[in-house]
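Key result, reporting period 2: structure in, sequence out.
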């Protein structure tokens, strides 16, 4: 998403709003301060809504790529080609069974060479997980459970919603002024800065602070459905969460700070799992999991 592109959109919308305001002054004469304030407020909300609607899948992809780049600067990518290829095969299996199998430039699954237990869903279809998170899976179905949770974030557009919400709030802070309505006082430049591409700092904050905890719980529920639709064991996510409960240090920060407690997540899953049909993990899936990830799973 280019700065110039956003600037053009903002300029067009603001000029249109200013022209409409000028027309009203010409027709109705002077406008009271109260009417001006109300008009400015309405205009701000209308413009913010329009800008949010202009946020395309292509824009989302480039936002996510910026997030992924910053994460890869913090966590080096794994050089284990076999593990990465396997990770993507499992991920693409889930994608094909998902409600949104096609997205701009496709889904990417990236293995990070870190012992930290963590996983990220960057807007635009980037899924990144650490070797530490990989070790929380004992078989292919449990790996699929981890990926299904992250895919749920992407397909329910949790990252996009977070970006739009932050952009909306910043926009209203600037646009809800009399100066914005008249395009004076340098406010136009401020608006363009606010509505330009989000800074790397925002992207990193989005990725490292995590999504709203209620969204995490919703992603778990969607993951169970996706696992079943793809032929994996829907109970696999519960097993992963039980293993996380044993391994996560609540005081360590990171994943434990950005996600609800595993016990809370398991409790939320129980009603959904009550009607789910367990799937026995075939031996062939266990064997290819062990074979492809033999190096990545070593301590």
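The corresponding designed sequence is given below.
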């Amino acid at each position: 998403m280019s700065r110039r592109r956003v600037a053009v959109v903002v300029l067009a919308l603001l000029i249109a709003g200013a022209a409409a305001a000028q027309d009203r002054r010409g027709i109705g004469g002077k406008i009271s301060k109260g009417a001006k304030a109300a008009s400015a407020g309405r205009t701000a909300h209308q413009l913010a809504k329009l800008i949010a609607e202009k946020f395309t899948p292509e824009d989302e992809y480039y936002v996510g790529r910026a997030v992924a780049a910053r994460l890869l600067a913090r966590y080096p990518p794994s050089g284990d080609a076999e593990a990465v290829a396997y990770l993507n095969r499992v991920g693409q299996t889930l994608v094909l069974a998902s409600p949104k199998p096609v997205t701009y430039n496709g889904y990417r699954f990236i293995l990070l060479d870190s012992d930290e237990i963590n996983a990220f869903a960057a807007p635009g279809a980037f899924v990144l997980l650490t070797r530490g998170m990989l070790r929380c899976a004992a078989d292919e179905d449990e790996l699929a459970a981890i990926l299904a949770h992250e895919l749920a974030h992407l397909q329910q557009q949790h990252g996009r919603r977070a970006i739009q919400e932050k952009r909306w709030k910043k926009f209203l802070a600037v646009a809800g002024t009399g100066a914005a309505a008249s395009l004076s006082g340098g406010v136009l430049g401020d608006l363009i800065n606010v509505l330009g591409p989000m800074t790397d700092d925002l992207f990193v904050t989005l990725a490292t602070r995590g999504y709203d905890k209620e969204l995490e719980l919703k992603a778990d529920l969607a993951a169970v459905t996706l696992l079943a639709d793809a032929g994996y064991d829907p109970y696999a996510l519960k097993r992963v969460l039980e293993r996380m409960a044993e391994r996560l240090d609540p005081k360590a920060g990171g994943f434990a700070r950005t996600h609800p407690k595993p016990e809370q997540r398991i409790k939320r899953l129980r009603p959904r799992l009550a009607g789910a049909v367990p799937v026995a993990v075939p031996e062939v899936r266990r064997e290819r999991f062990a074979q492809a990830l033999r190096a990545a799973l070593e301590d």
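Residues 59-158+207-292 form one domain. The two ends are 40 Å apart (CA to CA). This case is discussed further under Risks and Mitigation.
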